[in-house]
Amino acid sequence: MRTRRYTLFAIFMLVFQLGLYSAAHGADKLPTQLSDQEFWKLSGELSEPDGTFRSDNLLSNESYFQYVIPQLNEVAKSGQVYMGVGPEQNFTYISALKPKMVFILDIRRGNLDLQLMYKALFEMSKDRAEFVSRLFARKQPAGISSNSTLEEIFNAVSNAATSDEIYAENLNAIKDHLMKKHGFPLSENDIGGIEWVYGNFQRFGTHINYGSSGRGGFGNGVTYADLMLATDAQGVSRSYLANEENFNVLKSLHMKNLIVPVVGNFAGSKAIRSVGTYVRERDGMVAAFYLSNVEQYLRQDGIWDDFCRNVASLPLDASSTFIRSERGARFGLGSGLNSDLGNMSSEVKTCAPEK
User: Fold this and answer.
1) Are 292 and 325 a contacting pair, CB within 8 Å?
2) Which of 70, 120, 80 is nearest to 284 (CA)?
3) Residue 105 pLDDT > 60, yes or no?
4) How open is the CA angle 194-200-201, to the nearest 5 degrees?
5) Among 119, 104, 127, 121, which residue's Cα sits nearest to residue 184?
6) Which of 158, 237, 261, 300 could form a disulfide with 112 if both were Cys (CB 3.0 to 4.6 A apart)?
7) Distance, CA of 212 to CA of 272 (rounded, Å)
8) CA 273 to chain centre
């Protein structure tokens, strides 16, 4: 009898613990993989019409973007949902947080085209050496591999040959990967957008900077190589290309179709709220939202309150964290844009009521 009571008690405790685990890990209802059709449909359904910004933002100009990562890893949770704006900065924060699912939002459809280019390159490249060579339409130099340091890779690729033939071969591989392998019905505008983006990466190579495209951008001359070879305040290299582990976080998410590009205005009526609905219906939580310095423009246009209400509609907890770039922020060396963190739940409590 005692043995039976002990067995029943053990079973009860196991069921109880499993119930606690299930409650604490509700994000497990988020997809572990999306089909190609689900990915394309979700991106479209969450998106708003194409908008405009003063520059193309093919890459960032935030020199100190890694400084915030040690603190970010202390306050934000891994294995949940990451949201962000813009180009490659997101990849470094994603590799640090290792989320289960990612939504990259931008007012410009051109950023969606950029993200699709990256998606193809991540999936086609076996390691960082191949990825960096493909990204800048260079013939992969001999002697670099997965065992090479990031500095060795960028030095080699910076000096590698390119040509119209290499560009055309890689561009066709990107388009075939997206349209034939995945079956994405890219429009002529999207195809043209990918061609234009990739043409800039080939033209300027690893020295491409924020203002290289000439479309309204200006920058501080920081190149792609500079950004990738930068470190945090302690000299630790944390970029998404710092090592194969970081690179493979991105590659794995892309292979599973779990980095979803979305077209949307931060202050718009649909994109952020639709992402929130999707995540909440699957018991997910937004762990972090990278904003760059978009809030500066939202305030200038008098629409920051609309953005704030949108964020308030997201599924958040006490650890959900804004990542932002601002002049005079805490993480950096004081010049230019520095990084900072903010608690999402507490900040959006001040939102004006719905009208």
Assistant:
1) yes
2) 80
3) yes
4) 90
5) 119
6) 261
7) 30
8) 18
24 pLDDT band, cuts 50/70/90, is very low
pLDDT of 327: 84
Tens digit of pLDDT for each residue in 162-213? 999 999 999 999 999 999 999 999 999 999 999 999 999 999 999 999 888 7
pTM: 0.90
The per-residue pLDDT for 162 is 96
Place of tokens 């609309």: 306
CATH dotted code for 28-350 = 3.40.50
Q: How is the chain split into domains, by residue range?
A: 28-350
**In sequence order, which residues have a C-beta less than 8 Å from that of residue 128 and are 6 or more positions away?**
146, 148, 150, 153, 241, 244, 247
The residue among 237, 93, 112, 127 whose CA lies nearest residue 178 is 112
Tell whether the model's pLDDT for residue 3 goes beyond 80. Answer: no
How is residue 29 written in tokens? 């209802």
Burial class (CB in 10 A: 0-12, 13-18, 19+), 111: buried
Q: Mind listing the pLDDT tens digit for each residue in 299-342?
A: 999 999 999 999 999 999 999 999 999 888 898 887 778 899 99
Q: For residue 16, give both structure tokens.
A: 């109880």
Strand partners, 85: 105
